[in-house]
Write a structure and sequence with these properties.
570 residues; mainly alpha; Na+/H+ antiporter like fold; 5% strand
């Protein structure tokens, strides 16, 4: 068997090195992204030692972008998208214009032709899909007002960049580069009496319009139907395969047939599927792959950086960095404020957009191949991207402290009541903390209510959160290991903790915290394997129940009751 397998090597070495360096970054109280980017630099072509296949790494990273946008679409409706169009469209276009002007000015200061400056400025104007969405999801902001604005803004930027990539080749000569040989439809040009550039623009608009219409009219019927049909087969393997086939298939088809970006195609696939009752399960099935390939995205970004540029052109790197982090963020802040939104909303949008990513790399590479921008432009774009990505988590950390210090002033930006999380800590004591309200947790909750025992629920599923709030049940939305959430549960005065979720790793966080805060608390946990039982007990769980054991005990009890304790053969 041949061992020259660049695909396997890129995945194995990239993930392994990202894990080691990400773990070290976490131990040093830095974002794991720092380790992922450093892993890319280590396996990149500009450092000694092993060099990963850069093209393969980029394609693998694109899968992460597809799955990420598909997941966002699953939690986003057409109504949500249309509700922010009034600010997302003019806001994104205005911010792109400001960043492009700043980039053009920097290019002029470095002696570049004006066309090179324009393309360079466009590269600095568009935010990274992966970085923005990961930041919003980690802070559970996707379904808040500011999250919807940020995602809508991102979609508009995506459309502008798709149009830019289509128009750049025919405009290359005008921008000072080398125009490729034209292969346009001459008959259509003559029939319409318009030039090739306007023909390209018109055809692009028509293709994007057809794609959107197909997804909203045909896709809304076919995609949910396919998923429901597969679900009724009872095969989880086929269901997971169907979700991945829909996400990747629609993304690839949208790019191949309609010239739409992978990310935009996947977003619309998720959005039409969001109307299905199976959307939550579909999101869960794509989560592990999404996270793994998102890591490969950051590794692929690190591979693009030539560290020598930090020494050869430090002032140019700093100027590029400031345009990304300060220039376009300031423009976004002022635009959002001009539309009457609160300061917290404006700050969140600014922080979300204070970085660049995948479209920037694609555009600067295309500009270089058309001889519009010099090679130095690519190094500056990549250096600016890495520095801004490294800073982005710190911006959100600072933003969180500002909004926490001024919580009363942030009322206009709070999520809708049925989807938001409780900000105030519970006033309950001697209560039961029930983690999870699915098939198991809902039965436990019903019994607690029947016994009139005081309890609260911790649940991550937004749809369940909505229903429980409508019933008047005290509920806290979020992963049960989130520190801010744990502080609101009054673990120190709780009487019982019941973890009814199947994920032992997630349950372990709250079990460990509860045992430390309250050594006397009773803890009952759910597990799915012997290893999980031992793990949860080691963290402090007093009673751990495994489904198979409980079912077997129930069957034997029924058998004993029916046979009077005699053997079945008797």
């Amino acid at each position: 068997m041949p061992h020259d397998t660049p695909l396997i090597a890129t995945i194995a070495i990239g993930l392994a090195l990202a894990f080691v360096l990400g773990l070290l970054a976490q131990r040093m109280r830095l974002p794991p992204i720092v380790g992922y980017l450093l892993a890319g630099i280590v396996v990149g072509p500009f450092t000694p030692g092993y060099v990963a296949d850069q093209e393969l790494a980029t394609e693998l990273a694109e899968i992460g972008v597809i799955l990420l946008m598909f997941g966002v679409g699953l939690h986003f409706s057409l109504k949500d998208l249309l509700s922010v169009r009034a600010i997302a469209i003019p806001g994104a276009i205005g911010q792109i214009a400001v960043a492009t002007l700043l980039g053009t000015g920097l290019g002029w200061a470095m002696g570049w032709p004006w066309g090179a400056g324009v393309v360079f400025g466009l590269c600095l104007s568009v935010a990274s899909t992966v970085v923005l969405l990961r930041a919003l999801q980690e802070r559970r902001l996707v379904e808040t007002e500011r999250g919807r604005i940020a995602v809508g803004w991102l979609i508009v930027e995506d459309l502008v960049m798709v149009l830019t990539l289509v128009l750049l080749p025919p405009l290359a000569g005008f921008l000072g580069g080398t125009a490729p040989a034209t292969t346009g439809n001459l008959g259509l040009v003559l029939a319409l009496g318009i030039g090739p550039i306007w023909t390209t623009l018109l055809l692009t608009g028509v293709k994007v319009g057809i794609f959107v219409a197909l997804m909203l009219i045909v896709g809304r019927r076919i995609i949910p139907w396919v998923l429901h049909y597969v679900a009724h087969t009872g095969s989880r393997e086929l269901f997971r395969l169907a979700v991945l086939a829909i996400a990747l298939g629609v993304a690839y088809g949208s790019a191949s047939l309609f010239g739409v970006s992978f990310a935009l195609g996947a977003f619309f696939a998720g959005m039409v599927l969001a109307e299905s009752q199976l959307s939550t399960q579909a999101a869960k099935e794509t989560l592990p792959l999404r996270d793994a390939f998102a890591v490969l995205f950051f590794v692929s970004v690190g591979m693009l950086l030539d560290p020598a540029v930090l020494l050869s052109a430090p002032l140019a790197v700093l100027a590029t960095f400031f345009i990304i982090v300060l220039g376009k963020s300031a423009a976004a802040y002022l635009i959002v404020r001009a539309f009457g939104h609160s300061r917290d909303v404006a700050l969140t949008i600014s922080a979300s957009l204070a970085q660049i990513g995948e479209f920037s790399f694609i555009l600067v590479v295309l500009g270089g191949s058309l001889q519009i921008v010099p090679d130095a432009a690519r190094d500056l774009v990549v250096a600016g991207a890495i520095l801004s990505i490294l800073l982005n988590p710190l911006l959100f950390l600072a933003l969180g402290r500002v909004t926490a210090a001024e919580a009363p002033a942030a009322v206009p930006d709070q999520p809708p009541p049925q989807r938001g999380r409780d900000e105030k800590p519970t006033v309950l004591s001697d209560h039961v903390i029930l983690v999870g309200h699915g098939r198991v947790g809902s039965r436990v909750g019903a019994e607690l209510s029947a016994r009139r025992m005081p309890f609260l629920v911790v649940e991550a599923d937004e749809d369940l959160v909505t229903g429980l709030r409508e019933k008047g049940i005290e509920i806290y939305a979020g992963p049960c290991g989130e520190p801010a959430l744990l502080e609101r549960l009054n673990l120190g005065e709780a009487k019982w903790l019941i973890t009814a979720i199947p994920d032992a790793f997630e349950a372990g966080h709250i079990i460990e915290a509860a045992r430390i805060a309250n050594p006397a608390i009773g803890i009952i946990a759910r597990a799915h394997s012997n290893e999980a039982v031992q793990y949860l007990r080691s963290l402090g769980a007093g009673h751990v129940l495994m489904g198979e054991d409980e079912i077997a005990d129930g069957m034997l009890q029924r058998l004993t009751a029916q046979t009077g304790g005699a053997s079945p053969s008797a």
